[in-house]
User: What shape does this take?
Amino acid sequence: MDRRQVSDTWERGDPYERYVGRWSRRVAPSFLSWLNIPAGRRWLDVGCGSGALCAAIADRCLPSAVAGVEPSVGFLKVAINNLAGRAVLHPGSATEIPLADASIDVVVSGLVLNFIPDQLAALAEMTRVAASGGVIGAYVWDYAGKMDLMRFFWDAAVELNPDAAELDEGIRFPLCRPEALRGLFADAGLDGIDVTAIDIPTPFESFEDYWQPFLGGQGPAPAYAMSLDETARTRLRNRIRERIPVAADGSLSLTARAWAARATVAK
Assistant: This one.
């Protein structure tokens, strides 16, 4: 398996929305309820993507200000359209946030940390822009466990081609496990660390509703699917169809779990 055939990069918002963006919007409100931040705080979403978490902050948290940072031009365009002026969006990365020291009360990041090569540098930068006593929070998909839509895909892919295991996010991204997420926050020198699971339902009307987003070609699993020739891709589709639980009416009721962590910046 040539690792170069697939990419972790998200550049276009629409394929992301069809694949996992629609589910990220369901995680965000539960994450914010768990954080339980008082009104009137300044928020920053690091790696804001299509703007799902920024929108939830604006809608639910009575913030004094909401900012987002995102390296992808494509995602920034989608976020600008989705947010309609409710957040100030900046081009930038998690390790180079274009904001002043101690200028933010709550720094959050949704479904991004796994894709950052230097995660400690990212948390250091998030700590830099956070005010003393501020909150840093993040969540990542449970790729190795209850992220069902991806687990059914990779388990079938590896059964058909063991070399696909090197592309499986559950193996490649150890931060998807709660103990690793807690350890990262501890290594970053943060205080009062807490970790929890957030489960959301991910229903599909049919198997085709489940399968079609994998044909978008963007993100590890869709990119792998589209790297296959038509025969191999059909074999993969059929193997998943054999494995996945389908109700009598043809629908699928799956679960997506995210692991969330929060901590405070030392005063």
About this structure: The beta strands are 42-46, 65-70, 88-91, 104-110, 130-141, 191-204, 252-264. Residues 39 and 62 are 5 Å apart (CA to CA). The first strand starts at residue 42 and ends at 46. Residues 1-5 have pLDDT under 50 and may be disordered.
